[in-house]
């Protein structure tokens, strides 16, 4: 095995930092050539101009048999891996570092609309947050976040992803079951609308768990505390890939712990003191009609 260090690179997202060391194989300029997925998932990921961390969080030996392991401190890749699985691990580790700093990535869109800021929460099912965001924008709402809303301990949206859709999936993350996002846009609006962006770090006033399906009759129900926490915890756990394959025969290592989960549950309980509504609707337009009634 070639043990020559080819690259040490540091990435950051908000207050979180992560170091990757790459050994063996061909020399490379960066760990990942395209950061679009990382920015889609964690709002604003940057390659640091210099390495400041004394120890790596991810080590990749490009030679040898393909494998992945985690010892509680470092994720170790070995062998040939496409970019997709590596970027997923980068997201998970950065999300843990963000949590340690009191910033919580949430699988949700956020919009400032009629004087209030609310989430369209992905929750357990993820049925309509992007479509809801677009319709809110059509009606004059300002986008706070698209795919991910980063929430601090006080319940403020401190950072948010910009692009409403992931346009390109990297090798190793292709999904035939994911419909092309432009199809929903064509169906509901004809062409992609435009909308403004909100400046600042607004407090989140309430949360909408949407369910858009052409067969649904409209309904809106305020959620009880258990349902609120159940749905919101799903949106936080989304970043740790506890139920995903990285590649055939290789699962994501368990980077979560009981201690971290307990701390996360405490934050969830506190955040979920604000109102939560589950809204079923046939279209994004009907969804926003119902949202306007609960604001």
What does this structure look like?
Helix content is 28%, strand content 29%. With 295 residues, the chain is α/β, with parallel strands linked by helices. It folds into 2 domains: 96 residues, no CATH class; 192 residues, no CATH class. Strands 7, 8, 9, 10, 11, 12, 13, 14 and 17 form a 9-stranded mixed beta sheet that branches. The longest helix has 18 residues. The radius of gyration is 20 Å and the shape is globular. The mean pLDDT is 92.
Secondary structure topology:
Layout: E1 5-13, E2 16-23, H1 36-42, E3 45-47, E4 58-61, E5 67-70, E6 75-78, H2 83-100, E7 103-113, E8 116-121, H3 129-138, E9 142-145, E10 148-152, E11 157-160, H4 181-189, E12 196-197, E13 206-212, E14 219-222, H5 225-237, E15 245-247, E16 250-251, H6 258-271, E17 276-281, H7 284-294
Parallel strand pairs: 2-4, 4-6, 8-13, 9-12, 13-17
Antiparallel strand pairs: 1-2, 1-3, 5-6, 7-8, 7-9, 7-10, 10-11, 14-17, 15-16
Helix pairs in contact: 1-2, 3-7, 5-6
